[in-house]
Automatic annotation (TrEMBL):
NAD-dependent lysine deacetylase and desuccinylase that specifically removes acetyl and succinyl groups on target proteins. Modulates the activities of several proteins which are inactive in their acylated form. InterPro entries: DHS-like_NAD/FAD-binding_dom (IPR029035), NAD-dep_sirtuin_deacylases (IPR050134), Sirtuin (IPR003000), Sirtuin_cat_small_dom_sf (IPR026591), Sirtuin_class_III (IPR027546), Ssirtuin_cat_dom (IPR026590). GO terms for molecular function: histone deacetylase activity, NAD-dependent; NAD+ binding; protein-malonyllysine demalonylase activity; protein-succinyllysine desuccinylase activity. Substrate binds at Y54, R57. This is NAD-dependent protein deacylase. The active site is at H105.
């Protein structure tokens, strides 16, 4: 039976494809207040600003390309069962070849009804504008989990982590909850590797590779295989 490798990824892996992170120096939260662009209240208060913010993110994503870390993780599928659980809202894992990706915080390339959350639409890299509506007439919004909203894929992600034979963590500070709590769902005897050049939160018994995603994933893959 194939080993199950579960990969938890954060903004660090996408940063190496040129996508702006949110929390680092010069990141998006230094340029925009969370309360202006990433809460349900912000959308109710200034729909046009919120839509423009995510339209800009979508345009940036359209010009970005998956990097070697995305591709190496996808290539693992040739020999192992691999599930990527990502905090990122981009589609770089999928474009890099990954076939099994759980998006904890939503997806930029999708829109959903602001009134009927079960109505979700693939929009690619197109803008969402005021007046764009779902099939039932309600305004469309980004398919993003905003601050103050539940994380609907969290339970599914926790179930997946519990089945891991190896947990690989790439490009995340492990300081953003509830996603960071997934580390504690893994079985006690399952090895954990953290790849990040910074100082992520401490994880007991984890092996640390203090390198960027591309270099670190290459090192880990060479060691694991």
């Amino acid at each position: 039976m194939q080993d199950h490798i579960v990969v938890l990824t954060g903004a660090g892996i996408s940063a190496e494809s040129g996508l702006s992170t949110f929390r680092d120096n010069g990141g998006l939260w230094e340029q925009h207040s969370v309360y202006d662009v990433a809460t349900p209240e912000a959308f109710a208060r200034n729909q046009e600003l919120v839509l423009r913010f995510y339209n800009d993110r979508r345009r940036q994503l359209a010009s970005a390309q998956p990097n070697r870390a995305h591709q190496l993780l996808a290539e693992l599928e040739q020999r192992y069962r691999v599930t990527v659980v990502t905090q990122n809202v981009d589609d770089l894992h999928e474009r890099g070849g990954a076939s099994n990706v759980i998006h904890l915080h939503g997806e930029l390339t999708k829109a959903r009804s602001s009134k009927y959350p079960e109505l979700v639409y693939d929009i690619g890299y197109r803008d969402i504008n005021p007046g764009d509506t779902c099939d039932r007439g309600a305004q469309l919004r980004p398919h993003i989990v905003w601050f103050g909203e539940e994380v609907p894929m969290l339970d599914k992600a926790a179930e997946v982590v519990r089945t891991a034979d190896h947990l690989l963590i790439v490009g995340t500070s492990l300081q953003v909850y509830p996603a960071a709590g997934l580390v504690y769902e893994v079985d006690r005897d399952v090895p954990i590797t953290v790849i990040d050049p910074g100082e992520p939160a401490s994880v007991s018994r984890a092996r640390f590779i203090r390198k960027g995603a591309v270099e670190g994933v290459a090192e880990w893959v060479a060691h694991y295989l």
